Amino acid sequence: GTSGITIDGLTFASDFVSLIDSTGQHASYVYGVHGKSTNNFTFKNITTRNLDYAIAFVDGSTPSTNLVIDRLISQNDAMPIYLNYVQGGQLTNMDLNARTDATKLEHDIYLSKRNTDLLFDNIRLGGSVGYALQIYNSSDATYAGKRLTFRHLRFDNPNQAIVVQGYEDVKFEDVIGSASGNILAASGFVKINGVTNLSFDGFEVAGTSPAFYINSASTNVTLSNGKYHQSSLIGNASSITGYTATNVISDSNPFVMPPFVMPTPIVPPSLTDVPTIPQATVIPTTTPTSIVTTSTPTPTVIPTVPPLTNLTNYGITVIAIDTRRGNQRLLACSITASSSTYSGIASYSRYSSTPISVNLTAPVKCQGRSFSSWATGVTTRIITATDSTANNGEQVYTAYYR
């Protein structure tokens, strides 16, 4: 396998915009990236368009390890992400828009067999003919897929949202979206097949009913801190051994999709900005009776350029959100954010290889609403501004830590 490759700022595209073969599958047969048994592959700031598979890592004699994908925009690809036998990786900040004109059930993200220890964070999933997120594992217990974590997922009305089959230890945190159910309406927003230890903590879902459907016997399914706009929460719950639902409510209000924020690409420090070290002064010796003396300049220390692999270890993104009555919509207001290296107004993002401290200042007024204080929440990874206008503690501004 290949090791230690970084691809940054490229576009992979084909000219086959609407070509479909006799089986109903996208027929460009063009892949953006295809690999197996690789180590330490990194993709940053990538755009893909009109491809069959945009990024695919397939089953090899050994697993692919330490896969990193950050800031991927997929446009009209049949299958933006396909992973098989990948162990260890982070896939973050992706806007996936799979094509919808085929009939074969292809997906925004397809996690096939033997994937373990993967983190997915801040991803929008739109389009797709099949499930936007398909997680499927074979019955091979020796190489069972396990330990997947999904955070901050936004499903923008695909046909179906999620199917989880045969995996162990799968966690979802902060999942919001709707699904039309045009292909498999009875499957629900989330279809569950033979899963062990599955949890959803923090969710708001709408569209096809029920919200969760148990298609085959599963063990330890936990739902918490969520709301559903469908007519029922769960179907066929008797097929679960160990099912709990805590602080989950029905919401009859219209579902409102929150904005999706893609962080600004990082511009690495330029090596041309490194200061020049002054040269030592030469003492003239041509005239013995006139010795010129000068002070020796202090050498300038060349700053160390942080490695690119660590630039996103710490970060913060600030957006203005109104969460009154459970609805989320972007407010037309300004945020003032400042740190030792930045000050500015409006949507603010910053990333660093070391922990950062950012001071946030609320405007005096925002669409007629006043603010009284800011409060920090380290464990919850948020900073909020308190709205004092209505005297009910409405959260209006939220800063999400990475």
Sequence-ordered SSE layout with sheet pairings:
Elements (H helix, E strand, L loop, with lengths): L2 E6 L2 E3 L17 E5 L3 E11 L3 E5 L6 E14 L1 E5 L2 E13 L10 E3 L4 E12 L3 E6 L9 E11 L3 E6 L2 E12 L10 E4 L2 E12 L4 E5 L1 E11 L5 E2 L4 E11 L63 E9 L6 E2 L5 E3 L4 E3 L2 E5 L6 E3 L3 E2 L2 E9 L4 E6 L6 E8 L1
What this model shows, in words?
The chain has 402 residues and is mainly β. It folds into two domains: 3-250, Single-stranded right-handed beta-helix, Pectin lyase-like (Pectate Lyase C-like); 310-401. It has no helices and 30 strands. It has strands spanning 3-8, 11-13, 31-35, 39-49, 53-57, 64-77, 79-83, 86-98, 109-111, 116-127, 131-136, 146-156, 160-165, 168-179, 190-193, 196-207, 212-216, 218-228, 234-235, 240-250, 314-322, 329-330, 336-338, 343-345, 348-352, 359-361, 365-366, 369-377, 382-387, 394-401. Strands 1, 2, 4, 6, 8, 10, 12, 14, 16, 18 and 20 form an eleven-stranded parallel β-sheet that branches. A nine-stranded parallel β-sheet has the order 3-5-7-9-11-13-15-17-19, with no helix packed on it. Strand 27 and strand 28 (369-377) form a beta hairpin. It is globular and about 45 Å long.
In short:
This protein has 402 residues and is an all-beta fold. It is built from no helices and 30 strands.
- Report the sheet-strand fraction: over 45%
Q: Which CATH top level class of the largest domain fits?
A: Mainly Beta
Classification by helices and strands: mainly beta
Shape descriptor:
globular
Could you tell me the radius of gyration in angstroms? 26 Å
The CATH topology of the largest domain is Pectate Lyase C-like
Q: Name the CATH superfamily classification of the largest domain.
A: Single-stranded right-handed beta-helix, Pectin lyase-like
Proportion of helical residues:
under 10%
What letter string, H or E per element, gives the SSE order? EEEEEEEEEEEEEEEEEEEEEEEEEEEEEE
Q: What would CATH call the architecture of the largest domain?
A: 3 Solenoid
DSSP helical segment count: 0
Mean pLDDT: 72
Number of discrete domains: 2
Low-confidence stretches: 269-278, 286-356, 362-368, 370-402
Number of strand elements: 30
- State the end-to-end distance: 31 Å
Main sheet makeup: 11 strands, parallel
